[in-house]
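Re: [ENG-882] Designed sequences occasionally contain unexpected residues at chain ends

Forwarding the minimal case from QA. Structure tokens:
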């Protein structure tokens, strides 16, 4: 084997890859056989080659077979089974056959080696080497087979999984495929599961991404199209009933340098090279700045959330990236199925794939470099998801396992903060075996204690657990599953501590030692009660020292206090673990316990008994905390402190709840218990008063709530401002420099009172000490520093101050050289600000550059681009330069974030742009209010602005053209609460401009109002109207006609005071209130009216109403002259006539018609003012229509019903109402077009009543028909066959029979199949009904037609007696009787005669004849009394039979009766 080179991963295994070895050996043997054919070798050599080939075939099998193969070594060819038959005989037989085979081959080897020695001198060295390789291979195979059968005994039939070949780690490029292989043995055959970073790989979740194969003990995982996220640790877990074993491999996916630069990947996302290996200056320091930090976050269970920060490291070396660490509540986090970490080189992100309450806590992102570390932290809150049942509690959290043993584990959890409105009754614990999805509930009744011992586990298997809470309403959602735990003895874990454990379930190996018979185990020791509640008691002990080599089990015994009666708790099933949980103990009683060890040799002596233990909760629910004190923090958070619960044991933490004062509704501030006595409650509403309460938590339960705290308003606490930033040089001369900076993003809750500037000198790159540039604070964000050294390099820092103190200094500025600026163009503008931000606009403000260049600044350009756009995307807001230092930017896109800059212009050109503004999003904040202008009743003009939620200490700042107004003589400012107004003292052209107002201490609450010349003129006119008012009118003077033809003149003012006066004037003469004119004024509604009974010719003219209300007045006129007056008078007279008509019976709605569903026509009208004496008469064509019944005036409707309306009903209809009060009538002309309309509607109604087409078979063919409720000739009927109009023919006929519309198809054929449509045309539209005459419908109809046709033929041609026979024949004796009847039938029937149901035969006395096939005669020549009886003629042919019955009665005359009697007596 020296010529065969094995890979390193195969050298580690005793059973290395046979396939690899056999390939090399087969090649060697093939060359050997070819050489042997060319040589003159002996026959013995060929025999040996034959046996070698057989050995090669068997050696390719797995060294540990599930079933033993047939043993070809024995001469008898005995077959050995690995798992069937009696095991003792099987093992014994296998050993016998094995050694018999070895003896046989030992003799063969001796003979063949002797032959080889004789001929070896004739062979080359190469051939001898090959023969040696063959012998070594054969001997090794025999040795391995022998070792295998040595292990084939009863206790080894079930084998732990074993990795023959483990998966190898790989490093691949992106978009390549990679495949992991492993070979596993064991019995029963192990089940292999693949994991990625401890998460089970599901091929169905990512179709096409993963391919998993298992065949012949070889298992593989193929990953297609690898990407960067496939970099992970992969695990193959093999499991059977004996245990579990895992093997690991890592896959690293690399990117090309062109894609990622010099970045070097590390599996955990950190840069592997340490900064200690940096080849540069060992004293170099790395500066870390964390920007775009994540803030306090709120999520809900089940959500996906990401936390991220942008990290800037200087100097930035791609090959030496910082190490990023994530911490939660002081514990470093690692990537898992719940957490994903990513570091892109600039951005660090932590992603929660499925939020749970366990994820709540304080998160720290820490950036480690050689120079130290920088960190940022913020809290993440996770609230409960909506319960499946409203009112059910929240899910428990932090489920983990304690004290795991072979068949026992204690599950612990934390109670939820939300109980759903009713107390939690307890908890259910569920378990699931790893690798399955079947959950089993561990307890039948809920347990209140937050720990529960789970028993009945299967040794060697791994489990996960979850917990559910239950209250009176329902059961909560399950908690997050626990980490897997293996049911394994702790001592076995200790023995396995040197073996690499699998991160997910652990490598579990259960071994069996050789039994030592006859050793009874000793006493267990150190028996203690580790936990006692009212539901269970947990015992713990140590195994006995005297235990032998055999595994031991335990029996537990209990004894009730006051007795000496020991009772075995588990008599049937012994315990394997040195832990046991006892249930079903009597609450309140005391017990002692002891334990006995047992094995196959017997049961040992009991251990020492424990002290008496009372079955009750040893752990009490903690007492409530007290002295809860809130304090201000930010405008959305508060700091809550409290004094901890006294004498609390095993305290888990605290839950805090908050409530808006007066609401009575409490909400949890945290969903995960917090330790300590201080907590920051976030997510509060600014300006609201909040109260807080706290309760403690331990495993026994939740305490009562603490007393409520005092209510405190949520607002930001005063604090020093944050550092200013963006320091830049605005001007530089030989001995001074002007600096500019941006105000802090956080001002500490109060206005900034000033700034302090420091500077230092930088000599040869080494900074000096900081010096104060001034003592008194400066209010502007620009300052000139004097007495600097020319050509010296300086750095600067700025600190902001407010009433709370001086804040931290800013970051040191860039290095600036103090030298004279000589450029011609102006310097950059500074202090760029934006205000009045709306969804599509904002106002940009700036200050003039300190350095104006060689000429004065003449204007400015404002530039804009989206925040993420490239520098090439800058565009100018204004096409022409503006001389103002403000500009309104229009046309923004809502929701888009922008940045701005400004450039100054002079004669020399455009200067350097200013620093960029902070990014601003185009959106209108909720509650934004705009400035408005108002003119009061006295004509005073004012601008008004309101801030809904104005913070305490904030002020209104008014500006004109964006320059602050201070003691302006033209305006008077008034402020009250959150409202302010600017009153114009004497409005004029000097007041033209843009007025704006800004609220300090807010997020840019501001608004403006522009007053130009047109707006000023409008306001002045409105002011004049208010100073010199008029009575406003809702409507001018108008006229209308009332009932009885009365005339009403009216006018409506918007308002009239009680002192308002009114005058009516007609043709310059005032009208007084008299019999003709009725004047009425209603001051409340402002309604002024005048009524006249009727119009006369003298009333033509002009009417005017004059109003006077205080100093306000108004008037309105109405001219009624000429045609206007005549038409009004005519209409008044008509209305009066109508009123007179309605005094008696009259028509409210005139005569009309409608068609009912039954196609009848109903003439109807609506009448009113009817009484019993009122008569109604109907006329048609001036002829009265008579009725039998009196009209019924139900619902005031009078009707005339015309059934089966047709052309004869055309005419003129009239109805007349009359009684002693008057008469009224209405005429309806149903002629020509009106009649046609009625007929068309009747046809339409009739067509709509048509039933669906049906198919009927007749003796002549197939009939298609439909019924309608009423048919009239005006209803056109059209039949279609397959959309082709049918014409009436002899074979295809259509018609109407009563209300049936039919189409008759005589002698139908295959061509008649298809769709038949009946169209009913009412004169306007067609109404169609269709039926499909094909398929089974046609076949059935055609078959029925054939049957009916044959039946008709049979009916026509059947034999029948047409007539001629009487019913009764009475005849005198001695007479001759002759009867003849007509007979029909085709073919001609046969005729027979019957008497009393017996057939008659003709003779001389009875003559029967049938002539011409039509005439049958019956003759009795000499009638006798014996001829009396019932006779029948029977005619018959192939189509049928018919009979004709008659009765013959023979009588004797009276004079002959005695003689006849005597003759009879003689006889």
């Amino acid at each position: 084997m020296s010529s065969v080179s094995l890979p390193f991963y195969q050298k580690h295994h005793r059973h290395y890859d046979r396939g690899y070895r056999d390939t090399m050996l087969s090649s060697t043997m093939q060359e050997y056989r070819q050489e042997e054919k060319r040589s003159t070798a002996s026959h013995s050599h060929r025999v040996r080659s034959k046996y070698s080939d057989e050995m090669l075939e068997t050696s390719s099998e797995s060294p540990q077979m599930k079933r033993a193969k047939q043993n070809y070594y024995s001469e008898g060819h005995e077959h050995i089974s690995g798992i069937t038959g009696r095991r003792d005989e099987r093992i014994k037989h296998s050993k016998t056959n094995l050694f018999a085979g070895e003896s046989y081959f030992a003799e063969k080897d001796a003979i063949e080696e002797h032959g080889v020695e004789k001929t070896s001198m004739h062979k080359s060295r190469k051939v001898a080497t090959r023969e040696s390789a063959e012998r070594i291979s054969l001997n090794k195979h025999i040795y391995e087979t022998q070792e295998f059968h040595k292990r084939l005994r009863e206790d080894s039939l079930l084998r732990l999984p074993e990795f023959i070949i483990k998966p190898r780690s790989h490093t691949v490029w992106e978009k390549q495929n990679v495949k992991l292989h492993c070979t596993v043995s064991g019995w029963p055959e192990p089940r292999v599961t693949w994991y990625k970073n401890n998460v089970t790989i599901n091929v169905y979740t990512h179709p096409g991404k993963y391919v998993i194969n298992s065949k012949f003990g070889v298992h593989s995982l193929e990953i297609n199209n690898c990407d960067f996220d496939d970099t992970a640790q992969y695990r193959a877990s093999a499991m059977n009933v004996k245990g579990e074993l895992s093997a690991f491999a890592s896959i690293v996916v690399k990117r090309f340098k062109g894609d990622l630069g010099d970045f070097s990947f590390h599996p955990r996302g950190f840069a592997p090279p340490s900064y200690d290996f940096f080849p540069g200056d060992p004293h170099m320091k790395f500066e870390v700045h964390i920007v775009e930090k994540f803030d306090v976050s709120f999520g809900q269970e089940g959500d996906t959330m990401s936390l991220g920060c942008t990290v800037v490291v200087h100097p930035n070396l791609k090959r030496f990236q910082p190490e990023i660490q994530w911490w939660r509540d002081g514990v470093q986090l690692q990537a898992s199925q719940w957490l994903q970490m990513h570091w892109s080189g600039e951005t660090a992100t932590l992603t929660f794939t499925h939020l749970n309450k366990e994820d709540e806590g304080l998160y720290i992102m820490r950036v480690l470099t050689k120079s130290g570390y920088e960190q940022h932290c913020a809290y993440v809150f996770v609230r409960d998801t909506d319960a499946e049942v409203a009112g059910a509690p929240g899910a428990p959290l932090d489920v983990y396992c304690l004290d795991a043993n072979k068949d026992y584990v204690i599950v612990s959890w934390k109670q939820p903060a939300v109980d759903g409105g009713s107390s939690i009754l307890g908890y259910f614990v569920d378990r699931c075996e790893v690798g399955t999805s079947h959950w089993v509930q561990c307890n039948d009744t809920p347990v209140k204690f937050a720990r529960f011992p789970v028993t009945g586990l299967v040794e060697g298997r791994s489990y996960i657990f979850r917990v559910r809470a239950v209250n009176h309403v329902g059961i909560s959602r399950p908690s997050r599953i626990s980490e897997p735990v293996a049911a394994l003895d702790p001592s076995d874990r200790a023995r396995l501590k040197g073996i690499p454990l699998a991160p997910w379930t652990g490598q579990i190996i259960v071994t069996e030692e050789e039994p030592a018979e006859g050793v009874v185990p000793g006493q267990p020791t150190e028996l203690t009660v580790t936990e006692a509640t009212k539901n269970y008691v947990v015992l713990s002990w140590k195994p006995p020292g005297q235990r032998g080599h055999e595994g031991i089990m335990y029996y537990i015994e209990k004894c009730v206090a006051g007795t000496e009666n020991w009772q075995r708790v588990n008599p049937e099933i012994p315990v394997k673990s040195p832990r046991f949980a006892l249930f079903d103990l009597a609450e309140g009683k005391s017990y002692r316990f002891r334990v006995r060890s047992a094995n196959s040799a017997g049961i040992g002596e009991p251990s020492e008994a424990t002290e008496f233990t009372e079955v009750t909760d040893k752990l009490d629910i903690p007492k409530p905390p007290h002295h809860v004190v809130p304090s201000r923090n930010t405008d959305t958070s508060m700091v809550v402190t409290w004094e901890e619960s006294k004498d609390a044991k095993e305290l888990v933490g605290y839950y805090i709840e908050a409530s808006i004062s007066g609401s009575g509704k409490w909400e949890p501030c945290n969903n995960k218990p917090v330790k300590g006595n201080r907590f920051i409650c976030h997510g509060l509403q600014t300006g609201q008063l909040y109260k807080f309460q706290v309760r403690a938590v331990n495993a026994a339960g939740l305490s009562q709530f603490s007393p409520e705290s005092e209510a405190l308003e949520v607002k930001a606490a005063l604090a020093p401002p944050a550092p200013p930033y963006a320091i830049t040089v605005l001007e530089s001369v030989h001995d001074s420099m002007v600096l500019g900076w941006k105000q802090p993003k956080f001002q500490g809750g109060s206005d900034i009172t000033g700034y302090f500037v420091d500077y230092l000198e930088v000599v040869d790159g080494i900074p000096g000490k900081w010096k104060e540039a001034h003592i008194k604070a400066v209010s502007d964000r620009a300052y000139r520093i004097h007495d600097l050294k020319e050509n010296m390099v300086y750095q600067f820092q700025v600190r902001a101050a407010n009433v709370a103190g001086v804040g931290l200094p800013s970051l040191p500025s860039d290095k600036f050289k103090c030298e004279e600026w000589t450029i011609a163009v102006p310097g950059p503008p500074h202090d760029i600000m934006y205000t009045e931000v709306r969804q599509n606009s904002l106002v940009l403000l700036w200050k003039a550059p300190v350095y104006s260049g060689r000429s004065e600044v003449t204007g400015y350009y404002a530039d804009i681009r989206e925040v993420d756009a490239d520098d090439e995307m800058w565009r100018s807001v204004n096409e022409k330069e503006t001389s103002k230092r403000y500009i309104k930017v229009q046309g923004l896109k809502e929701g888009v974030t922008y940045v701005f800059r400004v450039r100054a212009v002079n004669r020399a050109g455009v200067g350097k742009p200013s620093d960029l503004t902070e990014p601003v999003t185009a959106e209108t904040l909720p509650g934004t209010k705009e400035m408005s202008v108002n003119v009061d009743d006295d004509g005073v003009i004012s601008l008004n602005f309101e801030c809904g939620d104005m913070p305490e200490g904030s002020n209104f700042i008014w500006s004109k053209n964006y320059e602050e107004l201070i003691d302006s003589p033209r305006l008077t400012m008034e402020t009250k609460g959150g409202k302010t107004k600017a009153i114009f003292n004497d409005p004029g052209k000097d007041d033209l401009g843009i007025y704006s107002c800004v609220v300090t201490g807010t997020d840019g609450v501001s608004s403006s109002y522009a007053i130009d010349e047109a707006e000023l003129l409008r306001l002045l006119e409105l002011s004049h109207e208010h100073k010199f008012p008029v009575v406003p009118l809702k409507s001018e003077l108008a006229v209308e006609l009332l009932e009885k033809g009365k005339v009403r003149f009216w006018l409506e003012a918007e308002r009239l005071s009680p002192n308002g006066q009114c005058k009516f004037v007609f043709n310059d003469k005032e009208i007084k209130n008299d019999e003709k004119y009725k004047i009425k004024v209603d001051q409340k509604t402002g309604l002024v009216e005048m009524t006249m009974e009727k119009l006369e010719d003298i009333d033509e003219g002009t009417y005017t109403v004059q109003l006077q209300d205080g100093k306000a007045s108004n008037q309105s006129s109405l001219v009624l002259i000429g045609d206007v007056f005549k038409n009004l008078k005519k209409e008044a007279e008509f209305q009066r006539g109508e009123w007179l008509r309605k005094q008696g019976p009259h028509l409210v709605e005139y005569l009309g018609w409608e068609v009912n569903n039954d196609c009848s026509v109903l003439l109807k009208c609506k009448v009113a003012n009817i009484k019993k004496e009122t008569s109604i008469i109907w006329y048609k064509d001036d002829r009265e229509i008579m009725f039998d019944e009196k009209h019924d005036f139900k619902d005031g409707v009078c009707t005339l019903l015309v059934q089966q309306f047709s052309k004869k009903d055309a005419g003129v209809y009239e109805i007349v109402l009359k009684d002693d009060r008057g008469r009224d009538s209405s005429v309806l002309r149903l002629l020509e077009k009106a009649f046609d309309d009625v007929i068309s509607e009747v046809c339409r109604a009739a067509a709509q009543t048509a039933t669906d087409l049906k198919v009927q078979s007749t003796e002549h063919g197939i009939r298609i028909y439909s019924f309608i409720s009423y048919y009239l000739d005006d209803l056109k009927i059209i039949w279609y066959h397959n959309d082709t109009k049918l014409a009436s023919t002899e074979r295809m006929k259509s018609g109407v029979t009563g209300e049936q519309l039919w189409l008759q198809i005589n002698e139908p054929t295959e061509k008649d199949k298809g769709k038949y449509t009946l169209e009913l045309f009412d004169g306007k539209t067609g109404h169609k009904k269709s039926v499909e005459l094909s398929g089974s419908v046609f076949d059935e109809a055609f078959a029925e037609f054939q049957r009916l046709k044959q039946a008709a033929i049979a009916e026509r041609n059947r034999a029948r007696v047409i007539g001629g026979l009487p019913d009764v024949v009475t005849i005198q004796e001695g007479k001759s009787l002759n009867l003849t009847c007509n007979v029909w039938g085709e073919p001609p029937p046969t005729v027979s005669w019957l008497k009393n149901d017996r057939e008659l035969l003709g003779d001389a006395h009875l003559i029967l004849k049938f002539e011409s096939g039509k005439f049958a005669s019956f003759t009795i020549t000499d009638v006798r009394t014996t001829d009396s009886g019932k006779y029948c003629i029977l005619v018959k042919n192939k189509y049928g039979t018919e009979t004709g019955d008659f009765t013959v009665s023979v009588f004797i005359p009276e004079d002959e009766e005695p003689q006849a009697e005597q003759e009879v007596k003689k006889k």
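QA comment: On inspection the terminal residues look reasonable. The two ends are 146 Å apart (CA to CA). Proposing we downgrade this to a documentation issue.
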